[in-house]
Design brief:
Oligomer: single chain
Radius of gyration: 16 Å
Helix content: 10-25%
Number of helices: 1
Shape: globular
Largest sheet: 4 strands, antiparallel
Strand content: 35-45%
Length: 126
């Protein structure tokens, strides 16, 4: 079996990309993400006019963007801009970590693999 340079794992409708060799950068285009109607730095229109979320994985790294984190970023921006509520997001680059959404100085934790709300670092149901 050949040794891979890049590993793409598809699980629960999401792709995880790992770069396993030096000198390789991977472009990921996710066409399954629905357009929000808003411009974000990751939303992109390809050569055929199709909208996708586009991001890059540097050599020896993991995907720099998790779509779940982008949804939380938009939610925090909506709270700030539309609801007048102080909110920010500190995304975790590790798929095993926790994203921290701070609303009015209260921290809420979300699993970085995109599958659940973790409350205060503990699993709180499905």
């Amino acid at each position: 079996m050949p040794k891979p340079n890049v590993r793409v794992t598809l699980e629960r409708g999401r792709a995880h990309v790992d770069v396993l060799a030096p000198g390789i950068a991977v472009e990921v285009r996710d066409y399954d993400v629905k357009s929000t109607g808003e411009q974000c730095d990751r939303q992109w229109t390809d050569e055929k006019g199709r909208t996708c979320v586009r991001y890059f994985v540097p050599e020896h790294g993991k995907a720099e963007h998790v779509p779940f984190g982008a949804d939380l970023e938009r939610f925090a921006a909506d709270l700030n801009g539309c609801a007048g509520v102080s909110a920010s997001l500190e995304p975790d680059p590790s798929p095993d970590g926790l994203h921290v959404l701070t609303i009015n100085r209260v921290d809420f934790y979300f699993s970085a693999d995109g599958c659940r709300y973790d409350g205060w670092g503990k699993w709180v149901g499905d």
